[in-house]
Amino acid sequence: MELTLALVLLLGCASISVHGHASELPSGIERCGIMDEACLINGVNNVLRNYAKSGIKEMGLIPLDPLRIKKFTIGRNPHSPVNIDLSFHDADVLGLHQAVAKRASGFTTDLSRSIELIMEVPEVVVKGPYSVDGRVLILPIAGKGNAEIRLTKTKVHAFIKFKRVSKGEHQTFAEVVDIKVEVTPHHVSYHLENLFNGQKDLSENMHALINENWRDIFNELKPGIGEAFGLIAKSVLDRIFGKLSLEQLFVV
């Protein structure tokens, strides 16, 4: 879910300039110079503010709030105190229309630099079916049902490395070769329905444990979250930047 926030920023940067002429863009969206960070940030924030809920059909931008995640899985880590198999399917991410881009730097025509992206989101809520099995700190955990995870005051810091792919004159495309994301929420709360087949005492004890130790648990899950969504991000970005050249996406 966390990397989805970074994807919003990445897709926003691409979406502000999908067509070659400003007249083809929705009102208020301009085509930016590839190194014009202020323009890129304004474009991303404009997309989030005005189109996050509706999407932009002519640009191929799907609605971002709510954003549906088909599947997300974190596997066991026997060396971690949070050693669980955790999966979500058909989950919704809400709150992305409130996100604010703070930085979008590193874009160049030769793609020699890593692209740095920073955004802040006041509140993100993830709701949907989950399943979990394993151990959290000192206690076993098992459950299957609906979950709600709430992240407040979240900062998303992403670094993406592309390589240049030339396809003829004035046709420069990009391919993702590496992506790293760090997510830093001010607070996280967890609510998992039907833990331990609905046994109330066990469920209450587990919720007390995971919510009192939310930071430790979140930090243990960070690497798995980043790796899983990194693969998703790479697939999405390669489709965008493999189909649309830099000359189409930006004023270069």
Characterize the structure shown.
Helices cover 30% and strands 38% of the residues. Strands 1, 2, 3, 4, 5, 6 and 7 form a seven-stranded antiparallel beta sheet that branches. Helix 1 packs across helix 2 and helix 1 packs parallel to helix 4. The longest helix has 30 residues. The chain is elongated and about 65 Å long.
Which key phrases capture this entry?
252 residues, alpha+beta, seven-stranded antiparallel sheet, 5 helices
The largest pleated sheet is described as:
7 strands, antiparallel
Alpha-carbon distance between the termini? Answer: 33 Å
The secondary-structure element order is HHEEEEEEEHHH
Mass-distribution shape: elongated
Number of E strands: 7
Number of helices: 5
| Helix content percent band | 25-40%
Poorly predicted ranges (pLDDT <50, ≥5 residues)? Answer: 1-9, 11-24
Integer-rounded radius of gyration: 20 Å
Measured by DSSP, the beta-strand proportion falls in 35-45%
Question: Which structural class is indicated by helix and strand composition?
Answer: alpha+beta
The residue-averaged pLDDT reads 80
